[in-house]
Design a protein that fits this description.
14 helices; globular; 353 residues; three-stranded parallel beta sheet; alpha/beta; 42% helix; binds zinc ion
């Protein structure tokens, strides 16, 4: 059988820089280029049609992952917010991961994209398109010196918070069942950060923000509202997922929500387990389309940062999801919007050009 070219996927969130750092940093980029046990690497990307996406620069909290995993196996769970990370602790980690992304570009593994035109050009040339994204703005000082320097290095997307408190606002805890309405909204500094990012053309990512913070951004920002990797509360009542009112606000603003492949945010029981039919992902997609329309639905896998459904497994398994959409009756035009078209449109609006 002749092999069919997979539908290109531009994806809202991956944590492969976390994996690269864990595998030794600079020398580990060879694994990305030649093959690895990561969810994202070049050979698997070619096989699965992974055209690129947002590469998260994330400062991990000193969590005991075994304890976290055991906790999330319970029918209900409520992990406390990790302690705040001081700026002087966050900054070197952000520098290290930004440098790893730049090294990957220097080695020809990907292209750091600063505009929608850059992403289109990379996709046309068959190069992996990377958007530099900082997940949790702990490294950024209130005077925005670091923000200016990161922008010059290619930063075009920022999540003000991960799931912990910062000087800007608070993220949601890993809590099931729970709404996202679990803490205070943005601080005055957080509101200044939103205005600053709007003015600079840095996309704001609302995944991880609690609900009050979300509504603060909705009120202040003049850009489309975007949650790069979040699912629907209606089908999985996890604090990380979005209520119908939030989905409606995203659609009204012209924004997008990227479907998160993390099984704990997909499965109705909130469990982080890979055994899960792809039909569950289609339930979330159907609901997003019902609430928002097909122009506001995208993908935000969380590859290398979460347990993904076993039928997908890595970027090499993306065609299984595309095929599931087809089998579910989605037309090709809709599939292309979800796979990459909606991301390109909303980034063009947000960044300009
Ligand atoms: Zn995340």
């Amino acid at each position: 059988m002749a092999s069919v070219k997979p539908v290109p996927v531009f994806d809202g969130h991956n944590d492969v820089l976390l994996k690269l750092r864990g595998a030794g940093g600079r020398p580990a980029t060879r694994l990305f280029r030649e093959g690895s046990d990561f969810h994202v690497d070049l050979p698997k990307a070619r096989a699965g049609g992974f055209a690129g996406g947002f590469f998260a620069i994330f400062v991990p909290s000193p969590l005991d992952l075994a304890v976290m995993k055991a906790e999330m196996d319970k029918p209900e769970y409520d992990l406390p917010l990790p302690d705040p990370v001081p700026q002087q602790a966050a900054l070197p980690v952000v520098m290290e991961k930004a440098a790893l992304l730049m090294q990957l570009e220097a080695e020809g593994a990907l292209r750091i994209c600063r505009s929608a035109a850059d992403i289109r050009a990379a996709m046309d040339a068959g190069e992996m398109a990377a958007v530099m994204h900082v997940e949790g703005a702990e490294a950024i000082d209130p005077e925005f010196h670091v923000l200016d320097v990161l922008y010059a290095a290619g930063l075009r997307s920022l999540g003000p918070v991960w799931s912990r408190p910062t000087i800007w606002g608070e993220g949601v805890p890993f809590r099931y069942p729970s709404t996202g309405d679990v803490g205070p909204g943005l601080t005055e500094d957080g509101k200044r950060l939103v205005r600053r990012c709007d003015a600079m053309g840095i996309m704001l990512d609302l995944s991880h923000l609690n609900e009050k913070g979300f509504w603060d951004v909705a009120e202040i920002s003049e850009k489309p509202l975007i949650a790069t990797h979040s699912n629907t509360y209606a089908f999985c009542p996890q604090a990380r997922n979005l209520s119908d009112a939030q989905l409606d606000a995203v659609a009204r603003s012209g924004g997008v929500v990227g479907l998160n492949f993390a099984t704990g945010f997909l499965r109705r029981d909130g469990q982080m387990r890979a055994q899960m039919p792809l039909a569950v992902m289609l339930e979330h997609l159907d609901h997003m389309i019902r609430r928002m329309g097909e122009d506001h639905v995208a993908l935000g896998s969380d590859f290398d940062g979460a347990v993904v459904p076993e039928e997908i497994g890595s970027v090499a398994g993306l065609p299984a999801l595309i095929e599931a959409m087809r089998a579910h009756g989605y037309a090709e035009a809709r599939i292309e919007k979800i796979a990459h078209g909606n991301w390109l449109r909303v980034l063009e609006t947000t960044w300009g050009g």
